[in-house]
Amino acid sequence: MKSILKSLSWILLIPFAHLSAALLCPDFVRVELPYVLLIYGILTVLTIAHLIVVRVIVSRHRQQAPMIVMALNMLKMLLSVVLLFVVVVPFTGKDAAVGINFAVAYVFFLIFDSQIVILMMKE
Questions:
Q1: What is the pLDDT of residues 82-120, one digit of tens each?
Q2: Which of 63, 106, 114, 122 is deepest in the core (most CB within 10 A)?
Q3: What's the start-to-end Cα distance of the chain, in Å?
């Protein structure tokens, strides 16, 4: 448990560095801070919903939980990409920088989500 919490604290450097770069070096990030925050907001909502559903599944269907969690991760990824193109891209334009910023945020949430799911499965 202590090692997972330690790794969670290390991965928090990803959004901190990303948001700091968006604030301090907007030419480097090439997407305005409100849109980066919008990306993080969308992914936060999807991750919270995912973790709530995973909590229920782990408690009720222990044996099938890994396969169901994998399917839910794929669904979350699909919803993330759809929301990116429906919500963020119309405001920012179809630029590669939007995709890169989304990928950075998505990798953070993927690692974070995986660590929390590992904690849930170990209980």
A1: 999 999 999 888 889 999 999 999 999 999 998 888 888
A2: 106
A3: 10
